[in-house]
Amino acid sequence: MRKEGDRYVLVTPVEKIGIKVDDAPFLVVEMCVERQTRETRLVFRTNVGDLVAVDSEHPLRFEQGAKEGLKPYVKVRGELWALVNRALFYDLVALGETERVGGEDWFGVRSGGLFFPMRLARELEGL
Hints:
Blueprint: E1 2-4, E2 7-11, E3 16-19, E4 26-35, E5 40-46, E6 51-53, E7 60-64, E8 70-77, E9 80-84, H1 86-95, E10 97-101, E11 104-111, E12 114-120, H2 121-124
Parallel strand pairs: 4-9
Antiparallel strand pairs: 1-2, 2-3, 4-5, 5-6, 7-8, 8-9, 10-11, 11-12
């Protein structure tokens, strides 16, 4: 599978077939938290068996959903992203911490030596 412009296609040696993707082409179904000396590394497994370690090449991004609130995604390869399922999103929140980014306090998670901000910390006060 790959993304060509705004559409997703399945590519075989003999043909290319366009497919419809509602949100993301993959779903994260499992998370492993590896704690090394001072670094934490998050590793996700997708519904098709891809293992993705969150780092600069496979970043996390968080988008505001229409009804479901914040939705996390991880870059799998190319321009293909996986939606992190809701249960694992709650696990990510449990790992969250606050860090100063661009002069403001953000709530987010760390992996591979990088901080991935979810929301401004002041937006979480009182929730």
